[in-house]
Specification:
The complex is a heterodimer.
Chain A (H helix, E strand, L loop, with lengths): L1 E2 L12 E9 L2 E9 L2 H17 L6 H16 L4 H14 L3 H13 L3 H11 L10 E2 L5 E5 L3 E5 L9 H9 L3 E5 L7 H12 L1 H4 L2 E4 L6 H10 L2 E6 L1 H10 L5 E6 L2 E6 L9 H13 L9 E7 L6 H18 L7 H20 L4 E4 L6 E5 L13 E7 L16 E7 L2 H13 L4 E4 L23 E5 L1 H9 L6
Parallel strand pairs in A: 1-3, 6-7, 6-9, 7-8, 9-10, 11-12, 11-16, 12-15, 14-15, 16-17
Antiparallel strand pairs in A: 2-3, 4-5, 5-18, 13-14
Chain B lengths: L2 H13 L5 H18 L1 H9 L16 E2 L2 H4 L12 E4 L10 E4 L3 H14 L8 E5 L10 H13 L5 E2 L1 E2 L2 E2 L1 H14 L3 E6 H14 L10 E5 L11 H12 L6 E5 L8 E3 L9 E2 L4 E6 L12 E8 L8 E11 L2 E7 L12 H9 L2
Parallel strand pairs in B: 1-15, 4-5, 4-8, 8-9, 9-10
Antiparallel strand pairs in B: 2-3, 6-7, 10-11, 11-12, 13-14, 14-15, 15-16
Classes of the chains: A alpha/beta, B alpha/beta.
Keywords (chain B): Ligase
GO molecular function, one term (chain B): ligase activity
Protein name (chain B): Long-chain fatty acid--CoA ligase
Amino acid sequence: MERAGHLPGLSADAVDWRTLTFRRGAETLDVAVPVLTEAQIAEVATRVRTNARACLKNRTVAEIAAVIDRAVARLLDRNGPWRQKAERLLPLVTGYDAEMVRLGLTGYLKTFRGPELRKFLAEDFANPAVLDDFQPMPKGGFARAFGPELLLHVWAGNVPGLPLWSLISGLLVKAGTVGKLPSAEPLFAGWFAQILAEIDPELAGCIAIVWWRGGDETTERAWLARADTVVAYGGNDALEAIRARVPVTARFLPYGHKISFAMVARSALDAAKAGAVARQAAYDVARYDQQGCYSPQTVFVERGGRVSPREFAGYLAHELDAIGSKFPRRSLSMAEAGSVASWRNAEETKGFADPSRALLGDPAGSWAVAYTDAADGLLPCGLNRTVTVVAVDRLADAVPGLAPYRAFLQTVGIAAAPEELFALAGALGAVGVTRLCALGRMTAPEAGWHHDGRFNLLDLVTMTEIEGSAERAADAFAPYTD
Amino acid sequence: MTEARLVEDLLAFIAAGEADEEAFNRMALAVFAHQFETNAPYRRFATQRARTLRTVKSWRDVPAVPISAFKDLTLSGRPPEECPHVFMTSGTTKGVRGKSHHPTLAVYDRSMTVNFRRRFMGDFERLRMGILFPTEQAMPNSSLAHYLALARSEFGTADSRYFVSDAGLDVDGAVEELSRAEATGEPYALLGASFSVVHLMDALAERGRRFALPAGSRILDTGGFKGQSREMAAEEFYGRLSAAFGVPRRLCINMYGMTELSTQFYDDGNEACPSVKSGPHWIRSRVINPLTGQEVPRGSTGVLVHHDLAHFNCASAILTEDAGVEVEGGFQLLGRADGADAKGCSMAVEDFLKAARAP
């Protein structure tokens, strides 16, 4: 039995626990998640708020970052107990291949080391000291940035460690933090808080990691009513339901589901390069079985290269097959298998009407590549290692068709020459794409990434300004005034 | 074999009252041969899977067409323009409707009536019926409208009537009929779409009306809820149903049918949910892993494949999107086998289409 969450000031015995059971093959893991009463919610919220006021607000951002760095170091240490626990239990909980989880964790955690945290800060604040004290402003006067006293995160999904992104962002702006664990991966965020508690109990007292059943309106309302700012992840329906319950005075920052895709220019399609490009694209498809918003679902491939789009689809199929033997896909629920099957069936059926279409896949159904010559545009696939290769005369031709999906576009993994990259970036940004990266890097955003084009830290703070007039007027009241 | 001969054989097969594995197999292979020969898209589909007249030796080998294919392909042995009856699905997220063409309804109607008598009518020849669905005239392409019209003409008394029209649900009319049944003691049958039944129950609850229908009265619902009224778990639904009309749950029967079939499945009431569904001897079902097409071990969840010999003009083996599990005496339906809850933040097809259609 693994106990999830982190509840400063509440003894475990005082709390009701519910068991979530995870099964992979013969292995079973029971995870106990806390179920708080309304009184306990009030108590924890007040404590986090009070502690944050007393502790976080008096620390410098550099001191906080140093503690986070030490916690991340413990998670990166492969011989450390936390890391070993993570490597053992996360594959069991999420179903992802153990080696994929291990590599993914390292790559991801590296983006939160000390120097990387400074990048986070520098991305959003010209002068990060503005989080510590009033700083002179170009327009005159002074300003200081304050994070919310109580920041509520509503996390979702099973990509291991994902909650860390917003959790750390909140700490960097000195926010008292309450995070709601996702039922699909209820461990990682709580572990992180517990590691912080080992290093710096005072700081960990400013964080509560809680749980409630998705759709438990009463509990959700109780938390939402107490938050100054709410960061929420999920599908639009879930986000809409949350938004309706957020007090109008609180700031609401929703991160909805997104769709991403890849683009391969003919300049990347000579015999020497195409194989490597396909391998990188396949890696992006396979990583976390396409559960991430940054995972590609379509690959636009330009005609006219030495390797044709149809041949590239074959390369991609070959690479997916190879990755599958190294990092097998997690076993799917019947519902997920059904989604993959209906996508495959639909693609196959379209092939009867249009012989230019093809479906490449292994008989066991562990991956599939659909190919089309038609001007199909962006289409979601069946997820779990399924992808459509769409042939286009020029990559720019694919852009106008993206416009209707502006609100849902996120990452484009791109293989193209520099001029093409910048020309396409302008067009893609204009239709709503917020991130371009190399193929092979789609699922590993760099430190300080502006998630969905937003400011991780800046969105969380409010500025308090001392206008020049106050400063000048103050002079009149100084003891040394003439 | 000509179509006329096949129809004759099928009617005889239904009339035979039972079929062992060998008899079912023989008929299934004849139907497959007919479909393979007359239905070009189906032949391409089967050939792609290396299933031909030579390789298909058992009904289990007959390739099952995914129901989504009925939207993209015209699966009809006879040219569609020669088929006076076309049943269509009620539209989907993609806005394309799947079609099933019927050159004749002789087999469909025989399949329905033989099975309906056995599974719904009990000892009654006819029952006074109230139908919670539009008429066949109002919905000429609805297989359910045809099914219910047939139920009324073949098994309903002359004064059976519809409670759904252009004007919507006729609650007053239903209350009047149900009160009359209560007063006269004449057993009554209420039939219709599950969501209309929910609407009626909601309307009755609002009026504070409950009924205790006479002994022998029964209810048939079908179709699930399809977003037309609030979702209700089966347990709650049948609990409320029984309480609202005073019909025991063993006489609250659920029919499971599809536009892509010519035969229906029924349960023997809903005292326990999920109930066990079964069909007559001319339809057989398998539970498979949708990705590999292999049958799952008995008792495991999978996706249902139905092999309906009566659906002779289209494709008699279909791969559904319904999850199910094989149990003693039939199978249990466990909801739809797609639209998986997103595990991550990657957008899934349904959400995407919904979002793209939003203004």
